[in-house]
Predict the 3D structure of the following.
Amino acid sequence: MSEAAQLVKLNGQEMTRLSALEETVERGRQTFIEVGNALSEIRESRLYRETHKTFESYCQDRWGWSRVQAHHFIKAAETAENLLTTVNIQPPTSEGQIRPLTSLDKDQQPHSNRDCVVGFSLIHTLLCA
């Protein structure tokens, strides 16, 4: 989207939805899947358009994140949801655990998840012990 895009007033329903999604992101620092899904919907529905011309400027102003950081959450949520529907294991607990899998095809993700989560947990344990 170009910087020439105009700000567009949201209707009541959109304002209510944006508020609910922003609350999710605010809380969401609790769960990266909810954060990623909320950011995805804000981006896809352009719910930032009343106050910001671009998703990037919205993320920077509202959350202090670059577009890339927001994209990491979105891709991590998509990947985690794919894994939760195809693999019967403990789900990852952070965006960082799942990030290495986001570049894989959906078919490859279930086969790689167990090693990724176990490896991340081991590294985390060693560094934080």
Remarks:
- Residues 12-128 form one domain.
- Residues 17 and 128 are 39 Å apart (CA to CA).
- The chain has six helices and no strands.
